[in-house]
Amino acid sequence: MSKVLKNKYGFNVTLLLNATRADITNKLSEFRDTLKERDNLLIYYAGHGQLNKDEGEGFWQPVDAIKDNDTNWIPNTYITRKLRALKAKHVLVVSDSCYSGKFVRGVEPLEEVQDKPRDFLKRMAEKKARVVMTSGGLEPVLDDGGQRGLSVFATAFLGALDQQTEKVFGTQTLFTDIQKKVGWNADQIPRYSHLHGTGHDGGDFFFVRTVQQIKMNLLEKEDSR
């Protein structure tokens, strides 16, 4: 995942492997203190999740989480509160975890932006975005079953990034492909919507392929003739 984001889309990638609660919360605080208005942020969480039905709260469970003790669990509401404080213009959270659909519960899905004119995409890019894509709804999801030991969702996400031909595209466009591929291969339905209470202003998170990657694709097309 990190290689594709870095090499094909020019992301500056920070990896938190086997992250504890402190690792994740400290990094979110760092983003709050350092990101500027012209910055964009993608947070990709791949790990365990849990749902407290009595409290109506979803959680991320970092590596130091204990099964029946939520002391080190990270509530969805904590994450949205941190995102609300960010100065970055566009923020996308991707949550590949069980019960992650709690992030979008009760929130209307975003408008489909495929095949829209370029000026529409420009207007979307000018607006503030706080959006989330989840690997499923309020149910457990597969943490394997994909290629190279990845989850079905992660495989679909990477495949969608690899196969995009447009130089610039919104996450809604990416999601349409991901949802179909996951639905074909697993009993789970990914969700995509804005994050309620975070200052979302109708925008979307956009991916921009690097110039080098575009040139490589052009060369491949020439070679295939």
Automatic annotation (TrEMBL):
Span of domain Peptidase C14 caspase: 1-193
Taxonomy, superkingdom: Bacteria
SUPFAM superfamilies, per the entry: Caspase-like
GO molecular function: cysteine-type endopeptidase activity
GO biological process, one term: proteolysis
UniProt-listed PANTHER family: MUCOSA ASSOCIATED LYMPHOID TISSUE LYMPHOMA TRANSLOCATION PROTEIN 1/PARACASPASE, MUCOSA-ASSOCIATED LYMPHOID TISSUE LYMPHOMA TRANSLOCATION PROTEIN 1
Name of the protein described by the UniProt record: Caspase domain-containing protein
